[in-house]
Amino acid sequence: MKMDLVSGYKGVVGLVFGNENSSNEDSYVERLLDRISNGKLAEDRRNATIELQAIVSESQAAQLAFGAMGFPIMLSVLKEERDDVEMVRGALETLVSALTPINHAKGPSNEVQPALMNTDLLSRETESISLLLSLLAEDDFYVRYYTLQLLTALVTNSPQRLQEAILTIPRGITRLMDMLMDREVIRNEALLLLTHLTREAEEIQKILVFEGAFEKIFSIIKEEGGSDGGVVVQDCLELLNNLLRTNASNQVLLRETIGLDSLISILKLRGNAYTFTQQKTINLLSALETINLLIKGGSEADPGKDMNKQANKTTLVQKKVLDHLLMLGVESQWTPVAVRCAALGCIGDMIAGDSKNRDVISSKVLGEEPQVELALNSILRIILRTSSMQEFIAADYVFKSFCEKNTDGQSMLASTLIPQPYSMNHAPLEEDVNMSFGSMLLHGLTLGENDGDLEVCGRAASVLSHILKDNLHCKERVLRIEIEAPVPSLGAPEPLMHRMVKYLALASSVKNKDGKSSSSANSYVQGIILKLLVTWLADCPDAVHCFLDARPHLTYLLELVSNSSATVCIRGLAAVVLGECVIYNKSSDSAKDASAIVDMMSQKVGLSSYFVKFDEMQKSFVFASVESSLNHKSFTRSSAASMADIADLENDFSEQKNMDHPILSSILDSYFVNLVKGLEADIREQIVEVYSHPKIKVAVVPAELEQKSGESDGEYIKRLKAFLEKQCSEIQDLLVRNATLAEDLAKTGGGSNLRSEHRVSGSSQRVQIETLSRDLQEASQRLEMLKTEKARVESEAIMYHNLAGKMEADLRSLSDAYNSLEQSNIQLEKEVKALKSGGPSTFPDVEAIKAEAKEEAQKESEGELSDLLVCLGQEQSKVDRLSARLLELGEDVDKLLDGIGDDAGNVDDGDDEEDTE
């Protein structure tokens, strides 16, 4: 395997760099590796390592050659020569160079990257990773430093493989965590390594948390100075965000162990609150991202996400996080735009779907006495005054979140919308400090006519659309608002809706500084006002009636729908407003009812062309790229610098004619897009229905066909002729209408058979087809359900059949066993009866056996006693002979025998005395 790999690498070297060009590099690297591997002098081997590191760090060919030959040798040095610190250092540094890309002049995109190939080679063997982790226990600083750099290079180029390898190594992650308590340089390298390791690796994330990662991270952040710290704080927060991003269990551990105080303290502005370096900005953005991750509560697939999300929100509000967010996003004058936007986004997320937090934000007061103001007023002022498009979007998101499914909050805001005198309405924008919320909003809505500042009007219209959304009471209340005319003698006060339509028309005719039309640049103002009108007219016949009160409104919309210079999205939204005037029209006036509007649409635009506007809008980039909330991005070292300053969207569309403003993809949220899609279906159906069943223009009264009394024959004939001419005109009109309808429906997919069946109502055909299709679909679904039920019943029947067979077999086995027991019982009963009847006993006579055994034992003991007496006689004779011999020798036998019988007794007595003592 290794030989194949080496030959493969050598082949790549020749293929990429050419055999002639790479041969010198190959041979030089090979000689150096030979000196390292086979050299006798330690100093020469060290010098060879230094030379090898230098050439590998500068030459891609050398990197390739080293990858083909050098890894086994260097790993052998690391494994077997731990005592030679300089050799280990050199080997590690060489390996780091082999895995580090060389950024010379950019070559072809398909050029082989030696560093990536070397990374792949080194990371294939788990043993090499285990060897590197063991080096972290070495005392030498540079050995640990280069080892961490090498592991970081591996995880950068091959993250998944290294993550899997480290998980299989005992105490692998623990060793890396220990490095966080090492010297500063080592600690910083370990932070980078752990940050790479924890990306999309849930198991490693959990292990790190159980190893105390949270405590160590916040300890380092505090030591480095919080948000005022350097890039190390950014690395800590990036690691923290990796641990929390989609991991609800880690969020729970953070909340319930060390708490959220340490995190919130990072957001607190201290000392020089007006000084914001780029690094401080990035640090605050990273901390705000952490807040946002906690507000999300975990991954979408996590079943406990919603509960965890609510618990996080509750804890954050208890810790006064809204005060810090309002300071960063609203109060502080020196906070960078990027931080203000992120803070406003967090505020919006905090109050979205949370009634308690909405109450908190609506009662918050900012500033100091006597210059105090409600927080919502301050956020509205940001919308009306800011020069940053991104800040407007972020502040607008706060009101969207506040008003979403919050009828009480909407009514509270709408109740403040009280018309002001003309002089107040057209006062400079800077004089709104002491205005109520409603007065400030109306001021912004009516400012456009004063100095042509339609952008402020558009932003105010966006806020008003949130207040009116899905709230019929607020829609009807705002309908009654009338704006005072500049000169009372020139006319009555003008309804607010009429003023909005007026500004919609002005937005398309505003000229830029060069005198050219700037309809593209102002398309987002038109889009916002059209969004307001769509929202206002939905499910509100009174609003439709108010809109149609001024006949020029309908004429302007028809022109806007067919205006080729307008953008796709603007034409589509104008078509939606026209459609709402049909489906929510309750007018009894023949000039304003649904039929009259459909007639005008057919004559001025054409129904097929009208329906095409919907399709074009749905395919536009605005509708395709709509997101439901602000786009929260994660910060890394590579992306943070470019993301620190949020660049506003370009407003110059001189080279992009008829392109919708990209800001609309943020203004037109997912709720609105879904609303438009639902309205589109209803509009198509209703227009076809109205067009295919027109109202009768001439009422045929049979009495008119009779000659009146006193009427001459000539006059009677003339009247009949006029009547017939009207009838012919009406019939011709109906024929044209049906032909147009057939053509329009054919162009929009209405069917190819309409020409042959044009006399049959297209609407009734479509209704019948849809009914039959629905019945067929329901029958198919019922059939599928019956098939599924049949299969389930059959499977259950088979299961019960098998179970019955098994139970029958068990019963048979039990029956056989019972029969056997019965037979045994009968036999035993027979034996018992035989014993009771006194028959021949089969048991032995126990008493006789006892007597016989006693007699045998007595005989045996008597024999043993006689044998003992014989032995004693023999011993006595021996004693007598010995005594006679002792007498012959002159010994006193009695004296010798004196006390011999008492020895054993004396010894026993002595023992007794000792025991007593």
Description:
With 917 residues, the chain is mainly α. The protein contains 46 helices and four strands. A two-stranded antiparallel sheet has the order 1-2. A two-stranded antiparallel sheet has the order 3-4. β1 (365-368) and β2 form a beta hairpin. α23 packs antiparallel against α24 and α23 packs parallel to α27 (437-445). The protein is extended and about 200 Å long. The two termini are 86 Å apart. The relative contact order is 0.03. Mean pLDDT is 80; it is low at 1-21, 511-521, 627-632, 644-657, 697-701, 749-764 and 903-917.
Percent in helix: over 70%
Largest sheet composition:
2 strands, antiparallel
What is the approximate shape?
A: extended
Beta fraction: under 5%
Q: What is the terminal-to-terminal distance?
A: 86 Å
Numbering strands along the chain, what is their spatial order in the largest sheet?
A: 1-2
Number of separate strands: 4
Mean pLDDT: 80
Low-confidence stretches: 1-21, 511-521, 627-632, 644-657, 697-701, 749-764, 903-917
Tally the helices: what do you get? 46
- Overall radius of gyration: 49 Å
Structural class of the secondary structure composition?
mainly alpha
What are the defining features of this structure?
single chain; 917 residues; mainly alpha; two-stranded antiparallel ribbon; extended; disordered N terminus; disordered C terminus
Topology summary:
Layout: H1 2-17, H2 19-38, H3 42-56, H4 60-69, H5 71-80, H6 85-98, H7 114-123, H8 126-134, H9 141-157, H10 159-168, H11 172-178, H12 184-197, H13 202-210, H14 213-224, H15 231-244, H16 248-256, H17 261-267, H18 278-296, H19 305-318, H20 321-331, H21 337-351, H22 355-363, E1 365-368, E2 371-374, H23 375-385, H24 389-403, H25 407-414, H26 422-425, H27 437-445, H28 448-451, H29 454-468, H30 472-479, E3 482-483, E4 494-495, H31 496-509, H32 523-537, H33 541-548, H34 551-561, H35 568-583, H36 594-604, H37 607-619, H38 621-624, H39 637-643, H40 664-667, H41 670-692, H42 713-747, H43 762-836, H44 846-888, H45 893-897, H46 903-916
Antiparallel strand pairs: 1-2, 3-4
Helix pairs in contact: 1-2, 1-4, 2-3, 2-4, 3-6, 4-7, 5-6, 6-9, 9-10, 9-12, 12-15, 14-15, 15-18, 16-19, 17-18, 18-21, 20-21, 21-24, 23-24, 23-27, 23-29, 24-29, 27-29, 29-32, 31-32, 32-35, 34-35, 35-36, 35-37, 35-41
